Amino acid sequence: MKLLLLLLGFAALAAAVPISNEEKTYPRFIEFPDGDGVMHTVDLEAEPDMELLEEINRNPANNRYLLYTRHVNNVIIKLNNYNQTTRNSRVSQTLVINDANSVTSSNFNARLPTIVVVHGWLSNQLTSTNTVIRDACLKKSDVNVIVMDWRRLASSDYATAVRGVPAVGRGLGQFLTFLNRVTGAPFNTMHLVGFSLGAHVVGNAGREIGGRAARVTGLDPAGPLWNTNSNRLRPSDGVYVEAIHTDGGTGGLGIGSAVANADFFPNGGNSQPGCVTSLCNHNRACELFAATVTNNHLVGRQCSSTLQVSLNTCTGSRLNMGNDILTKSGSGLYRVNTGRSHPF
């Protein structure tokens, strides 16, 4: 019995270790999900589509910006012979870079905080992770939520999408500069939130505006082709940069290593309670973030090492994970223990 317990203990310890000081490596072929949870075989050594990358570099207007607010749109639609107004919390208004009228005629309010949400690979504006975050933010506060749809690049093969992330991020940064110029919306009321590949997109966007965004949040930043990539999310990309790592183990979809001012590792940052697949672990970052916007209830303990994160022996200072507080600050590694279902 003692031998059995000892073996089980070692097995649990091995499964718990999500991160290390060394960059992890991936095989050439991996499985990576699209926005609907369908797994795709990815060749990490594939030749990128250089023609598409050149187009993306030339034209930041390939990105679409969809505004959601608490307002009722000034549009009436005909539905089953009844006139019905549309709510901007569900039906978006399109903002177009360098088209001031698209902004001034919209419900955008420069006096309110602006939260930008950016999806990952093979996704678009309708991807469920966007909806979860959008709805949580609008239910919590009167804010502008802008969902960036970058499907033109995100729908390409993974190797091409990775190469184009810096250009997409620069385009978002240019859009935020345009928004600031047209409306006066200050950068210190902007919170950029990106999931998976989108986490590196918002990092590059924050870099484009000189790290002036109040917050940049990376939700399980993508790992494949990013471990030694200088264009990945960095601590200097915003006034406060946070990363939430939920699938960072060996072969996981997330990067796993510290990339921000404050890096949170829920349940060790590898496998999440109630999850049996890497996809579930990966998406959990979005669910946890949305829950913290609503409740601000998940509290991390600072860790002095990655080993403490893995062993759940962190005893340092406390810092709430996620939430929507624009003046949030902090640094270091944090372990957070959560439940298996919403609100965790």
From TrEMBL:
It is found in: Secreted. InterPro entries: AB_hydrolase_fold, Lipase, Lipase_N, TAG_lipase. Pfam families: Lipase (PF00151). Residues 1-16 form the signal peptide. The keyword Nucleus does not apply. Residues 86-324 form the Lipase domain. Keywords: Secreted, Signal. GO terms for molecular function: lipase activity. Its main location: secreted. It comes from the Eukaryota. One of its GO terms (cellular component) is extracellular space. The keyword Secreted applies. GO terms for biological process: lipid catabolic process. Belongs to the AB hydrolase superfamily. Lipase family. This is Hepatic triacylglycerol lipase. It comes from Papilio machaon (Old World swallowtail butterfly).
